[in-house]
Amino acid sequence: MTDYLIFLAISTATFALFSLGLNLQWGFTGLINFGHVAFMTLGAYTTVLLSLKGVPVFISAVAGAFVAALLGLVIGLATLRLREDYLAIVTIGVGELIRLVVNNQELPVGDTWTSGAFGVQSYPIPLFTEPNLGVRFFMMGLLTLLAAIACFTLWRWVRTAQISLANDSDRRIVNKQEYLSRLIVGILLALLVVAIYISGLIALYNYNPKAGLMLLSLLVLAFVFWRLEILIRSPWGRVLKAIREDEEIPRAMGKNVFWYKLQSLMLGGAIAGVAGAFFAWQLSAIYPDNFQPQLTFDSWIMVILGGSGNNVGTIFGAVIYFAYDAMTREVLPKILPFDEARLSAFRIMVIGLILMILMIWRPQGILGKKEELTLGK
C-alpha cells in the first residue's frame, strides 16, 4: 500500500506540474494549446539523453526545460499573430510531429546511436542510490516541513473564503458556495497530505528510491506553485488575465500583447519540460508511444475539473483524476464482467459523462470563478 501511494503521489505531482503549465497558457492567458505533450516530450528526451552523456541530472532537467521553452518560442513566433484556432491546430500538429520524429530518428544513447523506436533505458535517476542515515533523516525533515507548509497554506486558503463570507453581505450566497467548496477541498487535500506524509516517512526511513523521487517531485511542484501564485498576482499576471478577457484593452493601454503571450507560452512550456523529466524518471525507460496526444487531453481534463485560471484547482483536478483512475482500476473489474479493453473504454465514457455534468452544473470547474470564465461572457 505504501509503494502504491508513493507511485500515485509521483504521478499526481508530475501531472499537476504539467497541468500548471497548461493552466498558465489557457486559464490565465487564453491560449488554446492542444499539443502540450510536445513540451513534455522534449523535456523528457533532453533530460535523459544529456544525463547519459554524463551531464548531472539536475542540470539535464534544467536544459530540458530550456529546450521546451525554445519550442514555445518557435511556435509562438509562427502562430501568436494569428487567430486562436490556428494556434490550437498548430500545437496539436507539433505534438504529433515531435513524437513521430523521435520515433523515426536515431538517438545518441550513450556512445552509440539507437533507433528512437527502441526507446531509451538505463539512464541516471536522481536519489536512486541509498543515502546514509543522516541524509535520510534530513529528507524526512524536508517532507515534514513540506507537509506542514501544505496544511498551513490550505488552512489560510479556506480562512480567506471564510473572512470574505463574513465581511461581504452583498454577495453572501456566492461567498458561501465558495467557502463550502474550499472547505471540502481543503479537508480532502489535507487528508491526502497526511496519507502521503506517513507513507513517505516509512519509505524514506527504509529507503525506497521512489520515495526520494516523490519528495523531489513534491518540492518542485511546491516551488513552481509558489512562484506562479506570485507571478499571477503581479502586474504581469494581471496583464495576462486582461489578454484572456479581451486583448484589445491591454493593447489600447500600450501593452505588447504578442510579447506577453509569447512569455506565457514559453514559461508554460518550460514547466511542462520539467514535468517531462519527472515522467521519464518515474518510468525508468521511455518510448515515443509514452507521449501520445492523450496526455494533453488528460491535462485538459485536470484543468477543467479543478477550474481554469486557478492553480489550486489545477492541482485538485490532478488529484481527482488519479484518484478516479486508481479507484476504477481496482473496483470496476470486481463489479462489471468486462474484459480489459471494454473496461478501459467504460472508464473513459464515465469521465466524459462527469465532465458533461460538470459543464452544465458548474462550467467554471470545481474551484473556478464564473466571473473569470471567458466563455461565460
List keywords for this structure.
4 strands, two-stranded antiparallel sheet, 2 domains, ABC transporter involved in vitamin B12 uptake, BtuC, mainly alpha, 13 helices, globular, 377 residues
Q: If you had to describe this structure to a student in words, what would you say it looks like?
A:
The protein has 377 residues and is mainly alpha-helical. It has 2 domains: 2-130 and 207-376, ABC transporter involved in vitamin B12 uptake, BtuC; 131-206. 76% of the residues lie in helices and 3% in strands. It is built from 13 helices and 4 strands. The strands form 2 sheets. A two-stranded antiparallel ribbon has the order 1-2. A two-stranded antiparallel ribbon has the order 3-4. Strand 1 and strand 2 (112-115) form a beta hairpin. Helix 1 (2-28) packs across helix 6, helix 1 (2-28) runs antiparallel to helix 10 and helix 1 crosses helix 12 (311-335).
- Spatial strand sequence of the major β-sheet: 1-2
Task: Characterize the biggest β-sheet.
Answer: 2 strands, antiparallel
Radius of gyration: 21 Å
* Overall SS class: mainly alpha
Question: How are the SSEs placed, and which strands pair?
Answer:
Elements: H1 2-28, H2 37-52, H3 57-79, H4 84-104, E1 106-109, E2 112-115, E3 120-121, H5 133-167, H6 172-205, H7 209-233, H8 235-246, H9 248-252, H10 257-283, E4 285-286, H11 294-306, H12 311-335, H13 340-361
Antiparallel strand pairs: 1-2, 3-4
